Amino acid sequence: MPIKITSAILNRLKFSNIRMSSNLNNTEAVSSKMEKLNMASSRDQTNFILQIVEDDIKSGKHREVITRFPPEPNGFLHIGHAKSICLNFELPKKFGGRTHLRFDDTNPMSEEVMYIESIKNDVKWLGYDWGEHLYYASNYFDKLYEWALELIRKGLAYVDDQSVEEIRESRGSLTVPGKDSPYRNRTVEENLKLFEMMKDGEFPDGKCVLRAKIDMKSSNMNMRDPIMYRIIRAPHPNTGDKWIIYPMYDYVHGQSDSLECITHSICTTEFELHRPLYDWFQEKLGILRTRQIEFARLNLSYCVMSKRLLLHLVNTKIVSGWDDPRMPTISGLRRRGCTPESIRNFCNKIGVAKRENMIQIELLENCIREDLNKVSTRFFAVLDPLLVEIENLDDTFTEKVEVPCNNPNYTRTLTFSKRIYVDRKDFSESPSSDFYRLYQGNEVRLFYTYWIKCTKVVKNGDVVEKLVCEYDPKTKGGKLEDKSRKVKATIHWLGSNDWFPATFRWYSRLFTKPDPKEGTEGEFGWLENVNKESLKVYKGMAEKTATLLKVGEPIQFERTGYFTKDPDSTDTEHVFNLTITLVDSFASNKESQLHKELEKKKRLEAIEARKAKKGSPKS
């Protein structure tokens, strides 16, 4: 739903001199556009998977719904996987079903226990539980081997001695049919013997493979005698050194679904052309037939999702690791301070469709803001401190200021005295006509205490070192009986003993373009669009009470942004990561673009509807 900006919030923002009334209006408008965009993407006709499942239940085809989330443990999950996790775990809930977590661990060269544990942690963090239904494809290796022997006996599989390059060359292309392997017509007996020798380690790695015998002239490249097994001498995270032949994903996928009685095998559209092979194996083996259904994967603006590209960012030190808060990985989003509720809400809003499209990152950001606004504890922080000296106060003067806290677990007390700190962004030497905060001769309200007026600016060279101000004792609590006298800005502050040193990591988008690959050439041309200003570090001050928060706990530093405490924090220095700004600074630029995208979606849906109507049988 759109961000709710109440009159109280607007007044507070006005007093705080966040002169963004137009931006706030744009934020509401853009959020509304996004809502419509989301509604267009998740209407009943596009949430086709739910319709399929409902029809299967109504027809009696299935009594229960069983789905699975089958990651390969060769890397960290990203927000695209979160969409699949939410879909696969939420769908069965509607029908009293269940979801399996299955690791498709068929390649020992790239899989590690570290990734397995990370994936389990991510799924749990998102709020899902697989219960007793944790599976590994490697647990089925014995059965898969038996089925491979069965296919050989049926004349549907053969051992091929061609090199990987020769096999690739003989497969042809989309316009050129493939060529039969010279080993394709080996006898059943010879293939059985050779496959057993492969299993027993009598051949070196890469010497031969087992291939399904289907159709080398098929228009579907995946049906041109795909490889089923290859020789890899590497220890496996689950099976150790038991096997030196490992099955390919396309052979394992459908058979694992069949063994687990999966009713709806949901995957992304890049596997659509693999579905005939999925069906072929199950049909030829005569096992339980399961149904593969494809949906559009998530493409998010200002992000790359490919594991290969993300790995390159890590290896080249563009980011600090897989959990860098700028990464679209679940671990990165978690470290940045995103909540699982906000990610689930985002995945629900974008819906499920067959057609791929670019989802605007602003929708995710608004989901994050919406949730953090509800759950964040509010404190003050001064990212770039500027000393203020109150000239009409004695050095011994102190006054405790009770500050309201929206979290009953914490209390907030500040001390107003001769020396306080404000944020440097709240002062200007050469103010514009719409700047209402501190400048020489101007008066502002300090949150929950007095009004102060800047009387002098103290500089060291070109650098402002200190502001000299006077306070008005009649304005205690920020109020004044004389209604004719007004201030146009309210700013936050910290007393000289109210703060703890803190590091603030100000994160912004990792790329400068919505599509990082747009207008680039070469394998790594997209790196040209890396935002070199995506991380700024401030050494500032945090309200002492804020340092009591636990790592990962959401914080709103008032007038600054939503933050979370980073694991790098120590007893002597606290590190806070910016999760998201309070207001979408990109809103005004995106409103027109989002409107165009909404109109484009409507046109595409109208075309699809006409096609469907044209193709429907006449009554």
UniProtKB/TrEMBL annotation:
GO terms for molecular function: ATP binding; glutamine-tRNA ligase activity. It comes from the Eukaryota. Residues 64-373 form the Glutamyl/glutaminyl-tRNA synthetase class Ib catalytic domain. Residues 377-472 form the Glutamyl/glutaminyl-tRNA synthetase class Ib anti-codon binding domain. Pfam families: tRNA-synt_1c, tRNA-synt_1c_C, tRNA-synt_1c_C2. Gene3D superfamilies: HUPs (3.40.50.620), Ribosomal Protein L25, Chain P (2.40.240.10). The keyword Protein biosynthesis applies. Its EC number is 6.1.1.18. It is an enzyme of class 6 (ligase). GO terms for cellular component: cytosol. It catalyses: tRNA(Gln) + L-glutamine + ATP = L-glutaminyl-tRNA(Gln) + AMP + diphosphate. InterPro entries: aa-tRNA-synth_I_CS (IPR001412), Gln-tRNA-synth (IPR004514), Gln/Glu-tRNA_Ligase (IPR050132), Glu/Gln-tRNA-synth (IPR000924), Glu/Gln-tRNA-synth_Ib_cat-dom (IPR020058), Glu/Gln-tRNA-synth_Ib_codon-bd (IPR020059), Rbsml_bL25/Gln-tRNA_synth_N (IPR020056), Ribosomal_bL25/Gln-tRNA_synth (IPR011035). Residues 490-566 form the tRNA synthetases class I (E and Q) anti-codon binding domain. The keyword Transcription does not apply. GO terms for biological process: glutaminyl-tRNA aminoacylation. Coiled coil: none annotated. Keywords: Aminoacyl-tRNA synthetase, ATP-binding, Ligase, Nucleotide-binding, Protein biosynthesis. Belongs to the class-I aminoacyl-tRNA synthetase family. This is glutamine--tRNA ligase.
